[in-house]
Amino acid sequence: MEQTATKSDFEQQREMLVNEISASFEQVLANINKLNRSLESVITVGNEFSSVEALWSQFEGVMAKNEGEAKAGHQDQAEGAGEGEGEVQERREENF
């Protein structure tokens, strides 16, 4: 009967461990909430840069297009110059 009136050592130890586990879970939950708020802040800051990113992407696209046109223009000029040089070389050979 004495065991039923007072808690056994096992029950006391179990209750203490359950309380520790409960406190630990509450701390984990609080830390997860902090992490969630931090991630939301990071996402908000990232979204603020979307217009800047779009502008830079547009700039990059324009520059790539201009670079491609410039390369094509240089190739056309080089081919034209190369043909002229060949004709000059042929004329020189004929003169000798």
UniProtKB/TrEMBL annotation:
Compositional bias per record (Basic and acidic residues), positions renumbered to this chain: 66-77
Superkingdom of origin organism: Eukaryota
Entry keyword set: Cell cycle, Cell division, Centromere, Chromosome, Cytoplasm, Cytoskeleton, Kinetochore, Microtubule, Mitosis, Nucleus
GO biological process: cell division
Disordered: region residues: 66-96
GO molecular function: microtubule plus-end binding
Main location (coarse class): nucleus
Locations listed in the record: Chromosome, Centromere, Kinetochore; Cytoplasm, Cytoskeleton, Spindle; Nucleus
GO cellular-component term (any): spindle microtubule
Family membership noted in the UniProt record: Belongs to the DASH complex DAD1 family.
Name assigned to this protein: DASH complex subunit DAD1
Organism field: Ophiocordyceps australis
